[in-house]
Each structure stands twice: as C-alpha cells, then as structure tokens.
Amino acid sequence: MDLDVVVLWVRTGWTKASRGGREAARRNAVPEAFALPHGRAAVHEVVQVEWRGFEPEWREERDSIDPISLSLREEDDVLAVQLHDTMLAPPRRVVRPSPVRLGRGEWVRWQVNHRWTRPRDGGWNYELTTLNLAYGAVADLKLFMGTPTRFVDERAALR
Q1: Residue range of the domain that includes 133
Q2: How many domains, the chain?
Q3: pLDDT tens digits, residue range 90-132?
Q4: Are the beta carbons of 56 and 78 closer than 8 angstroms?
C-alpha cells in the first residue's frame, strides 16, 4: 500500500423484516466498528447481514484501496479523504461533502446508506456502509470503536 492508512469498511445489509420492532432494535445494535487484527496499513472489511443473523463476517484483508469507492490524496503530511457514492440506488446524493482532511494520527468515520428494489420479488433491500479510516499506523487496535476525529454523516431517511 502506497499510503500509510488503516481502513475498516463495515457493511450492514437488511430487508423490510428488520425495519421495525424487535428486529429493528437488533439491527440498530450491530457495531459500526470492530477491533483490528493489527495496526499496519491494510484494508479490512466486515459484512453483517440480516439473512445471516447480523453475524460479523470478516473478508480477506487487502493491501490496496479501491479508487472507484475511495480517493486519497496526501500532501505535506495531510491526507484528503473522499468517499465516492458508487451505489446506483436511492437516495441519490447530488450534493456531496468536501474531502475530509486528516493529520497523522487522526481518523474519520464516514457513513452512507441506500435502498433498492429486488428484481425477483419487488421487496426492498437496505445497506449502511461505514468507512473507518486512520492516517498512519494504529497502536490501539480498538481505535475505531471510539470517537472519530472527523465524522461525515450522509445517512438519509430510508422509506
């Protein structure tokens, strides 16, 4: 990895069954972050979906950033982070936040959500994507479980 960043993507998926009552409370209780397996530069991803009981599933660690979903630009020990909204699903976000600037040792949590219709039955699927990104090596493996230096909330009310 060219840049000294630690990334943890957390993707949570659900259907209408988890939109209200006890199931919504269960969905809302799933974590936005997890303890890291190590603090070196890497891209980690955890998926937790309703149809697997919201059990966290760690994907294979990567050592490169997907430039389609995330842009990083480093200049004079400042990192500019821009999350791209690549989902072709509502709500469409015409106006997007500016890139977040991080100094070494700082981190951002950026959240965006979507919904889309399933072609097979017309039901709705929902997804919350949470990006946790630290600039520099991470000494505290529970860093992302705390309060971020910067927080970008692009969550919209999903019907």
Answers
A1: 5-154
A2: 1
A3: 667 667 789 999 999 999 999 999 888 888 888 888 999 999 9
A4: no
Q: How far, rounded to the nearest angstrom, does the alpha carbon of residue 8 sit from its chain's CA centroid?
A: 7
What is the model's pLDDT at position 88?
63
| The two structure tokens encoding residue 31 | 């974590």
Closest CA to 32 of 136, 150, 128: 128
- The 3-class secondary structure across 22-46, one letter per residue, is HHHHHHHCCCCCCCCCCCCCEEEEE
Is 159 a member of any domain? no
The single-letter DSSP state of residue 62 is: B
CA 131 to chain centre: 3
Location of structure tokens 């100094």 = 103
- Averaged pLDDT score across all residues of the chain: 90
pLDDT at 89: 62
93 within some domain: yes
Query: Under 8 Å CB-to-CB from 152, ≥6 apart: which residues?
Result: 83, 97, 100, 108, 109, 110, 111
pTM of the model as a whole? 0.92
Within a domain: 71: yes
